[in-house]
Specification:
Blueprint: H1 11-14, H2 30-39, H3 41-54, H4 84-90
Helix pairs in contact: 2-3
């Protein structure tokens, strides 16, 4: 139906992301963050700096600035849904 109405899918889907979450979602995994690094480099490094400032990582395994660019496959990762609870929980650290 969207194609017939000439409504394009959000860019995130066209780039291969599985959902149209915030760019740099703290719920993302290793593969997700490496895709963010490739497609949204500035946002990746903004989050890497923020991780160091707060002393915590969003992927729990390693800080983003130490993440091997070859690790992870977004196809193998599950991300939680976004919604009002996500905004309440994470709204003060993303944006």
């Amino acid at each position: 139906m969207l194609e017939r109405l000439d409504i394009k899918r959000p860019l995130m889907y066209e780039l291969g992301f599985r959902n149209n979450n915030c760019v740099g979602c703290v719920k993302g995994g290793v593969g997700y963050w490496n895709m963010i690094r490739r497609h949204f480099t500035e946002r990746f490094y903004e989050m890497a700096v923020l991780e160091r400032e707060i002393g915590a990582t969003c992927i729990k395994e390693v800080y983003l600035d130490e993440l091997d660019p070859e690790r992870g496959r977004i196809e193998d990762e599950m991300m939680g849904e976004c919604g009002i609870l996500c905004e309440i929980a994470y709204g003060n650290i993303v944006g």
